[in-house]
């Protein structure tokens, strides 16, 4: 093994704390000691997200309100998925490693999804409206998209074919209500699980700063179109591993939903 390859694999453990009101949540992560960038340390961020989510899920289970999401339930996989530009870059790199025949099949699934959405008149709305905004128009757009029943191109036999590398926002979408409520949240009430932090929003925030844009993400179904530009946003957030992780951590904010829930519980 050459020295450059060996250096790439040298890791260092970083300990840090995330502020949550007057409390702090301690975390640690092993990151590359040498040069890296935000896209390249996405596996580290996924691990942190998974650890945080597992802790919340355990608390809910102990309280008698277990998370109802499980393999084989693809209800939420018909929703619009905002994909950070860093995750888009990582997915593009992974897709490029697939055999050509598999790449073409995947591209066809994305193309089929876009055609269905275009026929429903949703493409222009997806481009021009910020469907993460807390507005009635954004909520209606999300429902209109869901009711088209356009499955995520990565959904195979009602299970995620990229589960270990699925987007952060997919990891962070958990409910304690019955699964069938996710098929029609406009009529049935789905009960999402508020997380103290949404790392997906952090990536979006950093991406928006880079692009001087209000979003920093793309609709997942636009991935193949986005790939044609050959963008590498991760290169703009680079340094040694601890530096890149520090940049990410300093952009983490407590989630509004969790803060509101905590304040409501205090009032009661």
Shape: globular
Distance between the termini: 61 Å
Averaged pLDDT: 90
Q: What is the tally of helical segments?
A: 11
Biggest sheet architecture: 2 strands, antiparallel
Major beta sheet, strand line-up: 1-2
Helix content percent band: 40-55%
Task: List strands and helices in order, with pairings.
Layout: H1 3-8, E1 11-20, E2 23-32, E3 35-37, H2 42-62, E4 82-84, H3 85-95, H4 100-119, H5 123-128, H6 136-146, E5 155-156, E6 159-160, H7 168-172, H8 199-211, E7 217-219, H9 223-227, E8 238-240, H10 241-249, H11 256-267
Antiparallel strand pairs: 1-2, 3-8, 4-7, 5-6
If you had to describe this structure to a student in words, what would you say it looks like?
This protein has 268 residues and is of the alpha+beta class. The chain has one domain. It contains 11 helices and 8 strands. The strands form 4 sheets. A two-stranded antiparallel sheet has the order 1-2. A two-stranded antiparallel sheet has the order 3-8. A two-stranded antiparallel sheet has the order 4-7. The N terminus is likely disordered.
């Amino acid at each position: 093994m050459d020295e450059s390859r060996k250096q790439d694999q040298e890791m260092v453990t970083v300990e840090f704390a995330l502020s949550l009101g007057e409390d702090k949540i301690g975390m640690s992560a092993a990151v590359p000691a040498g040069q890296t960038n935000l896209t390249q340390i996405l596996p580290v961020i996924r691990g942190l997200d998974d650890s945080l989510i597992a802790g919340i899920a355990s608390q809910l289970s102990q309280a008698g309100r277990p998370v109802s999401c499980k393999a084989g339930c693809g209800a939420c996989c018909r929703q619009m998925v905002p994909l950070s530009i860093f995750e888009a870059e990582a997915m593009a790199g992974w897709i490029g490693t697939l055999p050509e025949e598999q790449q073409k099949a995947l591209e066809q699934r994305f193309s089929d999804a876009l055609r269905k959405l275009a026929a429903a008149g949703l493409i222009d709305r997806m481009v021009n409206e910020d469907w993460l905004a807390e507005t009635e128009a954004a909520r209606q757009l999300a429902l209109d998209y869901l009711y088209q029943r356009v499955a995520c191109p990565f959904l195979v036999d009602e299970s995620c074919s990229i589960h270990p590398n699925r987007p952060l926002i997919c990891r962070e979408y958990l409910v304690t209500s019955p699964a069938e409520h996710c098929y029609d949240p406009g009529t049935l009430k789905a009960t999402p699980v508020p997380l103290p932090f949404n790392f997906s929003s952090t990536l979006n925030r950093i991406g928006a700063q880079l692009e001087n844009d209000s979003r920093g993400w793309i609709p997942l179904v636009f991935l193949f179109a986005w790939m044609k530009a050959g963008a590498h946003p991760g290169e703009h957030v680079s340094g040694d591993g601890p530096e890149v992780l520090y940049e990410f951590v300093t952009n983490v904010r407590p989630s509004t939903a969790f803060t509101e829930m905590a304040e409501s519980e205090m009032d009661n």
